Amino acid sequence: MAKPTDIPSFASSQLSLLDNELQAELQETQLLTSLHAPTTLARAGLAVLNLTVLSQRTGFGGKTLLELGPDPAVSSSGELPEHGLRVGDICAVAEQPKGAERKKEREGMEKRGAEGVVTKSGKGSVTVALDKEDVDVPGGKLWLVKLANDVTYKRLNQTMTKLQKMQPAEHSTLTQVLFGQTSPTPISEDELKSDVQWTDPSLNDSQKDAIRFALASREVALIHGPPGTGKTHTLIELILQLLKRKQRLLVCGPSNVSVDNIVERLAPHKVSMVRLGHPARLLPSVLSHSMEVLTRTSDAAAIVTDIRSEMDSKQASIRKTRNGRERKAIYGELKELRKEYRQREGRVVGDLLRESNVVLSTLHGAGGYQLRDQRFDVVIVDEASQALEAQCWIPVLSSSAPRLILAGDHLQLPPTIKSSNAKGAKSTTKTNTNSDETAEKVSKLTLKEKEEIPDGGKKKVKQDPVRLETTLFDRLLSLHGETIKRMLTTQYRMHERIMQFPSRALYEGKLIAADAVKERLLKDLPYDVDETDNTSEPLVFWDTQGGDFPEKTEDDEDKQSKSSLLAESKVNDLEALIVRDHVASLIDAGVKAEDIAVVTPYNGQLALLSQMLKDRFPGLELGSVDGFQGREKEAVIVSLVRSNPEHEVGFLGEKRRLNVAMTRPKRHLCVIGDSETISKGSKFLKAWMAFLEENADLRYPNLSDLSQDG
Ligand SMILES: Nc1ncnc2c1ncn2[C@@H]1O[C@H](COP(=O)(O)OP(=O)(O)OP(=O)(O)O)[C@@H](O)[C@H]1O
């Protein structure tokens, strides 16, 4: 076992990294909002102008919900203009500034307290749950502007501060194991062979082994699920088995979608469960399990509803009265009602929670007041390698559970980080999701360290310095090695030949393609597809070597008006023509556009390809590699972009990014790139190019065959 980590110093360094991250986020948003006029912000999707209050009522937790719609004097259609405000966004509501006072106005906005969270965002209105009680909503024409989201950081901060201040005597055995101060309790061979009554007879052996292992673990277990290996499938069975063993579970994921996915798949098994989280952010199919919906619809809910309507009518009377004294009196009454409301609601919530053996929420949501006095036996985190370590500590500390089970794949991309503590890197640069040049610089700086993260947990990582993007999953693997992990090995997504390289290069050659998928080709799709060179070939490589397909740095004339973070990216317009022709050939053969995706690591290339292909092939999906993580398609075309005499590969050097790119397709992967440039990038890239040359259907594009006007 590696050297134990000192808990308070670990927490302190997390706190300072989180602070850097918050600063980076604040800087980015403030930069945008302070530099630009409201109309520019509105055009950029960061603000909505010319609004009026449509309604005001009381929501969950006694919060005031303000519904804002277009001012009829300005909009005749009753519809809002296109805007980028989404549920969960933090925003301010204020009187709309006139041009000249805009800056002053916005600076004062936060202090005036009309801040809130968007809870609904539709064509005709946006609803905001106000943060503070008794806010005097300004009259007249209003506007909404997006603010930096520091709510997440506040909770991460509280969690890490709690960890930092804990006395050694307060550290549970789980906490000690998570920092290597104690070894995990060994599991005997007998336990691993125990007879389990499986609910799902179709589970494969690696899934069964992982479940037996997790059931036997006393403190922590990692379930490593490479692409398409049925990680969630396995977790569902594990949850059912734990319930049979009378365990109470808190199940979390980093995103709402990751949690909803589990709720949906647990629902047919009729387990007593409740999903915490704002209904506006949940999938419709999950609503019947939502805590908030249950507090309205369960038998006990009537007493809450009564008081809610009383509060609503009081709210309405405030808006009507202009008399200061009267207003004050109503505020007083509202305050009392709100208290009563919270108590009643609290009782209903408490009852619903007590009846539930499985509680599901996002990692962030597990830190809410509802779980304050709840005890759990096991915390399960899905997509754990997509979560910051500090996020995982939210449920661990709030639940006081003695056991933790993490499922994820540390060989795909970690969570997005905006700050970087890499030496020499600027403080506000994005790594990962943003395909820009600055990110590349950071990537290059940190690559060496990233390479040190062991693939199988065999090598030990240097413990310092702690990096924000080192996930708990990563850290536990380097701390305890293979002994705490089981890997799922049968994958149900990719044709065998598509799987081969990632399996060999990243998963120790252990992946097996399930019979149902290993030979599936586009021509076998359940609808009419012609047999062509492309539809009967799982792996195609268009090699642009020779220098005829050079990359370009996007010449951004509009740099000043954009965030500097969006400024530079790479494009390769000739490569884009190959993408276009390849898509066209698949579609001509009968493959549906909806079954095809084009992915590229570079935003510049993505913009170019979108422009070129969106109208011509409606239904075709285009995305950045990072944005496509967790998804799959029948056919995927990857445009690698980089082609230069210096053999610079930028952040293609991050093998986790390429792993994501090459493991999305089911039946057809087409890679387009310059093998000469790319193979010089890293050992991994060299091996990949060599593999493609050997195993793919190789094509050499001819410039004269590519018609420029399509
Ligand atoms: N034992 C099994 N037998 C047959 N099909 C399976 C089995 N396990 C998983 N699958 C199928 O494999 C696919 C992927 O499963 P699931 O959605 O659980 O994957 P995941 O590992 O969570 O996804 P990702 O690859 O994105 O991590 C699903 O279509 C699922 O039905």
Automatic annotation (TrEMBL):
- Helicase ATP-binding domain sequence ranges: 199-501
Residue ranges of domain AAA+ ATPase in the record: 217-457
Composition bias type Basic and acidic residues, residue spans: 98-114
Q: Which keywords does this chain's UniProt record carry?
A: ATP-binding, Cytoplasm, Helicase, Hydrolase, Nucleotide-binding, Nucleus
Superkingdom of the organism of origin: Eukaryota
Q: Where in the cell is it found?
A: Cytoplasm; Nucleus
Point to the regions of Polar residues compositional bias. Answer: 417-436
What is the phylogenetic placement of the source species in the record?
A: Eukaryota, Fungi, Dikarya, Ascomycota, Pezizomycotina
Record region (Disordered): 97-118, 417-445, 540-563
Q: EC number(s) of the enzyme? A: 3.6.4.12
Q: Which reaction does it catalyse?
A: ATP + H2O = ADP + phosphate + H(+)
Q: What is this protein called?
A: DNA helicase
Q: What family is reported?
A: Belongs to the DNA2/NAM7 helicase family.
Q: Does the keyword Nucleus apply?
A: yes
Origin species, per record, is Zasmidium cellare
Cross-referenced Pfam families, in alphabetical order? AAA_11, AAA_12, SMUBP-2_HCS1_1B
